[in-house]
Design a protein that fits this description.
By secondary structure, this protein is an all-alpha fold. It contains 26 helices and 4 strands. The longest helix has about 30 residues.
């Protein structure tokens, strides 16, 4: 027998003007909130966050610490999902995501005001980590609220299309973060930007917060929540019911390991991994790399809308399965193509004269301030230079470039041997044809992300009953995206530094997607979804 809330869903027919207002206000708020969260990652990829707040004098270690700070925010997203999911199911969708966006805007502006490590020492990273925690808590409540709010307003058979704008808003937040950084960078000298100008994009979030609040405060509460409240169907304890409602445990596990984990690693690989890959190992000029990442992400926005709309016709599961499968097939080839196009000289040198580091004990810890062995020190030096290498076991520590041993292990001799072998350590700007090839590869990655991400807001909304929807949807989503996705830059960067292979970090993405494909293929049933 249908509940009052279910009947309200089936009977409503919102007008086009109402849906435009709902989608626009929810999507723009999501854009701004993800902008706030991603501005840290955008500047971390360029090295500014690391050397400002985590100064060690070691760029590899600074980068790892900066990405660890990035991951901390994601680590607290599940706690935010529990807190705000509970409030969203008890007090309403609208007011909950008004609170989350306010918290996010204030915390983001705060990062831009924190003094550097050089000024206040260890207090600087501690304050930044604290603000990242607040951002993580806020984001844990934002996505579920916005997605559910739109889905519960959407007329039957249109939820995939309407909620796909929420999905695209996540990428739009990344694009906006890049755009604001580039505009700020172009408006001043490089020295000024590196000194204090980079703080302006963080402080800009106050203006975005004002716009978001102005738009969202005019919205009405979700019709589903109002119907549940009127009929007394509000859950007494949404968190408890999320784990005791019949069949919900399986739905939670599918949402976590099959949906959230898979889609998020593809998305972060298509955005931040691309940005780090181009700026780091491929040594592309930072501005060029940022323009490519922003341009590719912008050109790929329509994939989210396309696959969201398509899911209204063919079901939610099929596009996700197809996206996972093609990711497993194309992930490495797309990055190989980008690498060869981004820096053909470096790729050719690595192929013609591969670097081999050898010794009796080649233990290397990227987090260590000083390596304990000569072989480890050689690997550390090459890792800081962004030079790919392989390892071998020999009685004594040495470096060979193209089978030719380096005269000694000094940095001067290594640099000379690298230069003689054709390894250029200068920043590069790819030619026009290569730029087009890189852009095509990024758009292809965006398509894989769109196929897996576009239908998801509608899928997760339909997977859980209305009375516990906010909690049940938010908890697995933010555990999956917070831990599998949020730790991706740190884990992949560590794998690259540890192995010397610029493509090594992609194995993390590949393994998580393979797991997600298996879970979704065998355990997600279309009959589980309550199409509203």
């Amino acid at each position: 027998m249908a509940t009052t809330a279910d009947e309200a869903l089936a009977q409503r027919e919102p007008g086009k003007a109402e849906m435009r207002q709902v989608v626009t206000a929810s999507s723009l708020g999501t854009v701004f909130e993800w902008y706030d969260f991603f501005i840290y990652g955008t500047l971390a990829a360029s090295g500014i966050i690391g050397r400002t707040f985590f100064a060690t004098g070691n760029p590899v270690l600074e980068a790892l610490y900066a990405w660890a700070g990035f991951a901390v925010g994601f680590g607290f997203r599940p706690l935010g999902a529990v807190l705000f999911g509970y409030l969203g199911d008890k007090l309403g969708r609208k007011y909950t995501f008004l609170v989350t966006i306010t918290l996010m805007g204030i915390a983001t502006a705060g990062v831009g005001l924190v003094p550097s490590y050089a000024s206040i020492g260890v207090a600087a990273p501690m304050i930044v980590i604290g603000l990242r925690i607040l951002q993580g808590l806020a984001l844990g409540g934002e996505y579920g609220g916005a997605a559910i709010y739109v889905a519960e307003h959407s007329p039957p058979g249109r939820a995939g299309y309407h909620t796909s704008f929420i999905q695209a808003s996540v990428s739009a937040g990344f694009i906006l973060s890049l755009a604001v950084v580039l505009i700020t960078r172009f408006s001043m000298t490089s020295a000024t930007f590196d000194d204090w100008g980079w703080r302006l994009p963080f402080i800009f979030s106050i203006a975005l917060l004002a716009i978001s609040l102005w738009m969202r405060v005019k919205l009405n509460e979700s019709p589903v929540f109002k119907a549940m409240k009127a009929s007394g169907e509000i859950a007494r304890n949404p968190l408890k019911e999320s784990f005791t409602y019949p069949g919900n445990w399986r739905r939670l596990m599918v949402a976590l390991f099959g949906i959230a984990a898979g889609l998020t690693v593809i998305w972060y690989t298509a955005t931040f991994s691309v940005l780090s890959f181009l700026q780091g190992p491929m040594r592309v000029e930072p501005v060029v790399a940022q323009l490519l990442a922003a341009g590719g992400a912008a050109a790929g926005l329509f994939w989210f809308i396309l696959f969201g709309k398509l899911s209204d016709k063919i079901g939610r599961k099929k596009p996700i399965i197809i996206g996972y499968g093609f990711t497993l097939l194309l992930l490495f080839p797309l990055f190989w193509a980008m690498g060869h196009a981004a820096n053909p000289g470096l790729a050719e040198a690595a192929k013609r004269a591969p670097v081999v580091v050898s010794g009796p004990d080649c233990a290397y810890d990227p987090f260590a301030a000083q390596q304990s062995t000569t072989c480890g020190q050689l690997m550390d030096y090459l890792s800081k230079k962004g030079i790919p290498y392989t390892q071998a076991v020999t009685p004594s520590a040495s470096v060979a470039i193209g089978s030719v041993p380096v005269v000694s292990n000094t940095s001067v001799d290594i640099d000379k041997a690298l230069a003689d072998a054709g390894y250029s350590l200068d920043k590069v700007t790819p030619g026009t044809v290569d730029l087009v090839l890189i852009l095509i590869a990024i758009i292809a990655l965006a398509a894989l992300s769109g196929a897996t991400y576009g239908p998801v807001a509608a899928l997760l909304t339909e997977l859980f009953p209305p009375r516990i929807r906010y909690s049940s949807m938010s908890i697995p989503y933010h555990i999956g995206t917070g831990y599998f996705g949020g730790f991706l830059p740190l884990i992949s960067q560590f794998m690259v530094a540890k192995s010397g292979d610029p493509y090594a970090g992609l194995w993390y993405t590949w393994a998580v997607v393979a797991m997600a494909l298996a879970v979704t293929l065998f355990f997600l049933k279309e009959r589980d979804l309550v199409h509203e």
